[in-house]
């Protein structure tokens, strides 16, 4: 049907798809409304249709109509129903009305940014559409590789296994929020995911320096490491007893237990340590909304970093703990491949099992986010980045490349430091400003102001040097993506390391979107914009 509409010559140019969408709406929307029943879901669908009706064909991502999206949603809902009703198979439409985030009807998402030039301090997230595309492809690939006769062969079920530390999945009463250190295959006789992490108490203290790692300059491996990632609660994954994970052919289930434990406990620690290290009340009701947003962003970044660890994409791979974790995961996924005959022909033997790991993550990421929600509920917030603690929607941060996420996170940290330093400058120079005539060199107020000015410059200079390093590496990748976007990541040849190929692919998609947008401008308009969402710290 889509192909036939594309060929019609008597339709308004560039609106073939939009017209088809309108026809589908007239025919099917009453049926959709009757089937869904939920007023919120129907309102979202109406907003989506209104927005698409105003767009030209080349503005519409992938030319997916409302039927495509609803069919995909029904497939996801059916799979989630199976997940949540493994034994009784009693599926209820009312229990799963939420759309996945990649199909949340193209709502714009905003974040608070203290460095923004906009009066509201907010900016629109412009990479979300690319993350949606990446996730959609990953989900399709996972289903192709490991869903057999409706059964996802990689989906874990922690209620089916007994763990090394004595926990029996049956004892969780079908609630992953009950998971604790008993439900782990940690080889240590004592300790838990956060043992040995952030002993200096600086993980979330504003101004904590980011460690710089420089490797092969040609492969762009240089990066600044977020203290949040440096001190993540992954000690149990670093000390996994591989034999316990893989015994009895239940590796996909047993591994999930430790990943859920890491996710849940790291989220809890983020909430606790952010408040403590920034002098905030330990009572969530007393934490300012902007701090809650920062906490929730940190939780989402850690969720995405867990995904990169599982998929073998984590940039921080030189640390002893990270290396141990990677070795364990490679062995475990080798066993997973051996234990599931139906999937063996779908994956190569690269030793690292990258595609198998990516598919396992995609199959289980919803459960990982649910474990995080167990801790997010204590924050008692349902706004901005915390909105996910009240629904089934899984964020897409894990489909934004780690280097780009860390750039954004660095910018957020810099803005907090700059804001704090500027407030101190205003405080110490306030008297001088009030009494300019008497504030001369050598007077107490002038000396205090002068000292604070020098301190401000010193603080900002350090962060400026970091930004120059970060932006230089990004700029090389971005410019190459601009040149090679029509040809995919293969056009890079050997210029990009394996762990930056997701960045290259992401930026190429971003370039394609930019070029599509630029093609609509008048030829007499201003020159093309070569910047991107990552081109400045603000």
Automatic annotation (TrEMBL):
Entries under Gene3D superfamilies matching the protein: 1.20.58.830, Duffy-antigen binding domain (1.20.1310.20)
Pfam families named among the record's database cross-references: Duffy_binding (PF05424), PFEMP (PF03011)
Compositionally biased spans, kind Basic and acidic residues: 81-96
Domain Duffy-antigen binding: 223-405
Span of domain Duffy-binding-like: 2-88
Region (Disordered): 81-120, 512-538
GO cellular component: membrane
Compositionally biased residues, Polar residues: 528-538
Molecular-function annotations in GO: host cell surface receptor binding
SUPFAM superfamilies: Duffy binding domain-like (SSF140924)
InterPro entries per record: DBL (IPR004258), Duffy-ag-bd_sf (IPR042202), Duffy-antigen-binding (IPR008602)
Acidic residues biased stretches: 97-109
Protein name: Uncharacterized protein
